[in-house]
Amino acid sequence: MNPKMEKLFKLPLYQRFLLLFVVLGLLVAAFVYFLYNPAREELVKRQAELDRLQVQLQEKQRIANNLPRFKAEYEQMQKQLELALNELPNQKEIPSLLKSIAGLARDNGLEVLLFKPEKEAVKQFYAEVPVSLALRGTYHQMAFFCQAVSRLARIVNVVDIKLTKPQMVDGETLLSINCRAVTYRFVEAATPSPGDKKKGKKK
């Protein structure tokens, strides 16, 4: 028998048990460190990845289930946009529309002292087309004028109304009225001309 083994067997029983526990402890520690912990970390990563994929799957499933509703809402919004655009005058209609505003003021008894088209204010897909008005008349005449403007087929808003200098004339209170009538027109996206494209390439 190996002398080392003989020496080991000659040790007292409690020392042999103690040595056995130490060896087993080292084996368990090696197993935990080299095998169990890496496997556990990999399992945690896989579980996290699985949870993430399940969340994505549920989200995509929810979108798929709601796709008909989203499509219907989109089509409804498209129709509403088309209706709104139909209420915007085109470039050719602007002059006659502005003249009709002045005509409505006169038709409702207002005296038109100033009719001054202002510079357009271009927004994202439309432009504001304002005109400054200086009018003279009663409060009720102004109210009827605003009501008539609101009934136009095209969108026109009367804003920035200022009533000043009231005067009694023939039993009526006449006012100096300053306001702005604002209509809107659709602005189409400008497509670059071939010449512009060539200039861009040269740069």
TrEMBL record:
GO terms for biological process: type IV pilus assembly; type IV pilus-dependent motility. Residues 43-94 form a coiled coil. It comes from the Bacteria. Pfam families: PilO (PF04350). The chain crosses the membrane at residues 13-36. InterPro entries: PilO (IPR007445), Transl_elong_EF1B/ribsomal_bS6 (IPR014717). Keywords: Coiled coil, Membrane, Transmembrane, Transmembrane helix. PANTHER family: FIMBRIAL ASSEMBLY PROTEIN PILO-LIKE PROTEIN-RELATED (PTHR39555), TYPE IV PILUS INNER MEMBRANE COMPONENT PILO (PTHR39555:SF1). This is Type IV pilus assembly protein PilO. It comes from Desulfuromonas thiophila.
